[in-house]
Amino acid sequence: MFRPTQLPTPDQALPGRATPMPILEPHFVFGRPLRAPLPEGMEEVMFGMGCFWGVERKFWQHPGIWLTMAGYAGGLTPNPTYKEVCTGMTGHNEVVRVIFDPRETSYDDLLKLFWENHDPTQGMRQGNDRGTQYRSGIYTYSEAQAEAAEASRAAYATRLAAAGYGAVTTEILPAPPFYFAEDYHQQYLAKNPQGYCGIGGTGVSCPIGLKA
């Protein structure tokens, strides 16, 4: 399938729909409703780092994670379907939204996981997966998250440059609306352990504490 590597303009984007994606199944690993409200004391993050199947598994395996969910964000089309996102004409990225307990893990820990498990220098692709839906992105829910994300990008860019990589292309934006992906995408690699996982890191470690 042809996937553009340029984001659509508003007049090019598909119209979408007002009806949200129906999500009927609970989280396959944690057993919690995917539309559960944010529990008191928990925090949320959202990342794009390639095909969301493998990305979501990385996060649900991490200590201190309460819930993960696959979806679409950063585009123009309301409530898109997977087929629409794959055309490149919604502008959305494949993302994973994560709810975590800051008493058990930290935002810095999750940023480290993000940077070390994909190649953030590849623009509109990740490995063999090409298109705008595979771009690297951090979508922040507070000013503190934004500042930490920017600092981590600068620190990791220095390490990557020293290892011979090009410029970091990761976008860092305030969290846009999150649209759930279809049920069959949720926790896909828990349901299909031998399924496709296209993510892989550079082998360059991110500085501990995310400071240069």
From TrEMBL:
GO cellular component terms given for this protein: cytoplasm
Keywords: Oxidoreductase
Keyword Oxidoreductase: yes
Residues at the active site: 51
Enzyme class: oxidoreductase
EC number: 1.8.4.11
GO molecular function terms noted in the UniProt entry: L-methionine:thioredoxin-disulfide S-oxidoreductase activity; peptide-methionine (S)-S-oxide reductase activity
InterPro entries reported in the protein's UniProt record: Met_Sox_Rdtase_MsrA_dom (IPR002569), Met_Sox_Rdtase_MsrA_sf (IPR036509), MsrA_MetSO_reductase (IPR050162)
Domain (Peptide methionine sulphoxide reductase MsrA): residue spans on this chain: 45-197
Record field: catalytic activity: [thioredoxin]-disulfide + L-methionine + H2O = L-methionine (S)-S-oxide + [thioredoxin]-dithiol; L-methionyl-[protein] + [thioredoxin]-disulfide + H2O = L-methionyl-(S)-S-oxide-[protein] + [thioredoxin]-dithiol
Protein purpose: Has an important function as a repair enzyme for proteins that have been inactivated by oxidation. Catalyzes the reversible oxidation-reduction of methionine sulfoxide in proteins to methionine.
Family the UniProt entry places it in: Belongs to the MsrA Met sulfoxide reductase family.
Record protein name field: Peptide methionine sulfoxide reductase MsrA
Species for this entry: Pseudothioclava arenosa
Organism placement in taxonomy: Bacteria, Pseudomonadati, Pseudomonadota, Alphaproteobacteria, Rhodobacterales
